[in-house]
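Notes from the 1:1 (GR / supervisor)

We went over the backlog. Supervisor wanted to see one worked example end to end before approving the batch request, so GR pasted a single chain during the call. The sequence is below; no edits were made to it. Supervisor asked that the structure be written out right there so they could see what the output format looks like.
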Amino acid sequence: MDNRVYFVLLLLSIVASTWGGVRFVLWMDRVGEASLQRIIEAAMAHAATDPSPIVDLSFCTYRTCIAFWSQTQHRISLPYDTASILLKDLHHYTLRWGWLGPAMILLPWSFLLYAFERWRLRRQLRNATEAGRGP
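Structure output shown during the call:
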């Protein structure tokens, strides 16, 4: 075969693998976003029946896949019990979706953010109960 044929085959394989890789990354991003949305919707459904005092939750989630990473800041006011469950679920989401790419270096920070936010939620609950707004 002529060298031009090999060159064309090489270009076609590069284009095909790049196209497949981009499709895979976009698919992973959609799946990760849908998973995050389900977590938040479940928390909102649980919040409707939760009688505990309202606290403010602030947490960053990270998701990554090979060449991209995404950070999402969550600031939600929820009842304490629901906020605790949501915080745990958001942290687990970061651990599941943050290990496969560049955002992996942020996973140790996720543990620190989780611990700090748990402390902050407990402090808000204590302040609410001392003020007489909770059980």
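Supervisor's comment: The chain has a mean pLDDT of 86.
Batch request approved.
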